[in-house]
Known about the structure:
By secondary structure, the protein is α+β, with helices and mostly antiparallel strands. It has helices at residues 4-36, 40-66, 72-91, 96-99, 101-109, 112-130, 139-240, 245-271, 277-280, 283-298, 315-336, 378-388, and strands at 301-307, 340-348, 351-358, 392-397, 403-410.
Amino acid sequence: MSNTPLHQYRASFDTWGPWALLGAGVVTGTLSARLIGMDRPGIVATAVLVPAAVVLQLYWGRVKRKRPGPSRTGACLYLLRWAIAFVLTWANPFFAFYAVTGYYTAGRELSRRLVVPGLFLTAVTMAGSEIGGWPPHGLVLWLGFFLVLAINMGMVSVFTRFAEQEQTRLSVQADTIAELERTNKALQLALDENAALHAQLLVQAREAGVADERRRLAAEIHDTIAQGLTGIIAQLQVVANAPDLDTARTHLERASTLARHSLGEARRSVHNLVPVALAADGLPQALTQTVAEWGERTGVRAEFTVTGTAEQLHDEISATLLRIGQEALSNAARHARATRVGVTLSFMGDEVTLDIRDDGTGFDPAAVPPRTRAGGFGLDGMRARAERVAGSLTLESEPGHGTAVSARVPLVRDDR
């Protein structure tokens, strides 16, 4: 809540209040002169001091415009005005209207150490007026004067304290408002920065999502079309060196089957990238078929085992494990020269593990060259697939002692 109107009222009263109170004193003093029995010296003093008060107020207005606030000049003018008001009140008690000006101007015209003395002088003038005028006649009136003076000073003290508390409250309120404005500005700047950062993060997230989707699509294409074409090429190479027509026909049929399977995978990938083998069957059935077809195609003894209680997995989990299994078998066919391969799917509480082991030549994992543009996705692709679904992939291999690949992923059930 703003205190601007209050400041405007105070400024207006400081300008016109003394004139209004002086006018009230002149009017009431003139009307009551005969009633209270003003003598000739009192009338003369009033005729001299009222114009003096007017000149004083005019000069004071000029001083305040140049040097607002407490000053030595202001203190002298305050004392001079009190003296004029005291004499006017001595001549006619109704000039106390003008004397009361000292109450509300002391705090703004006098320094802090002079405020109480200035208020005391004004209280003396007001107490004299309230007992009927100066000077008090008799002991009773003097006792009444001191009693009224004490009451006036008590009221002045109370009101002064209230005024100081109000001023302190207004000062604290102004500081609080200023601090809130600074805080609001800082908050707005922070919000603007956060909005810019949010927009930047959205762009980065979108770019990261696009890059991740590209990698995922590349892996899907590698695991479907590329592996199918690799198998077809291998079958055709066998056909080229087949000793008889029956053998060639057998491998041609296998190449044709691979081509149809790869075409189905490509069409399926265009729709939702879910492996064809998982379209109708669960992961155990899909792996059973994959391992059997791989063994038939390569002539390597391949066995598939399921341990634990099989459950229907989420499509993404099933697709991830199937692709890892296909890639591991493809690597074994190309590099391991194995005579036996074992694939185990294990359901263990809240995890699913797929282990692919072969008795091939093995290799040194630390010496694996980085993937090239002409190569497959290999170990990096399998590891990326597992990590994409919050899983992990480990590899154990040693030259001459075969290879073991283990993929461990969370068991996320199908929610359909």
